[in-house]
Design a protein that fits this description.
The protein is mainly alpha-helical and 131 residues long. It has one domain. It is built from 7 helices and no strands. Helix 2 crosses helix 5 and helix 3 packs across helix 5. The protein is elongated and about 65 Å long. The termini are far apart. The relative contact order is 0.15.
């Protein structure tokens, strides 16, 4: 699917309705949601592209988020909000301001537990009741 500059501009204006600037955070368009972050989101969630395109076509010129939601089908509004919020949180400045470093690795059941991980369990002692 081709994302023309016009479509990206349309997305940026709707995105600003969803995420305006405030509290020292940039608006969605200032964070660049319609540029590379859009491409990154759709690379991982390509099933959202068609609903997002339809959302851009059907949105009209809403003045509020409520008007925007009423103008769109539920799946179109969901695609729009998912893409815009995901792209917004890809911005390093936004994440730094919020103190969010991104996902961290979590040990899986395949990894051997370490003493550091097991220490709180051992320290609390037995917590079961005898039958």
């Amino acid at each position: 699917m081709t994302w023309t500059p016009e479509r990206r501009g349309r997305l940026a204006s709707l995105a600003d309705l969803l995420i305006p600037a405030g509290d020292e955070l940039p608006s969605a368009s200032a964070a660049g949601v319609s540029a590379e972050p859009l491409d990154q989101i759709l690379a991982g969630r390509d099933e959202l592209a068609e609903d997002l395109q339809r959302a851009l076509d059907h949105a009209g010129d809403p003045a509020t988020v409520d008007e925007l939601e009423k103008a769109l089908a539920p799946e179109e509004f969901q695609a729009l909000t998912t893409v815009v919020s995901g792209a917004y949180f890809l911005d390093p400045g936004v994440r730094a301001h919020l103190g969010y470093d991104g996902p961290r690795p979590i040990p899986t059941h395949d990894e051997q537990p370490t003493d550091e991980l097991l220490a709180p369990v051992r320290d609390r002692g037995l917590i079961y009741r005898k039958a």
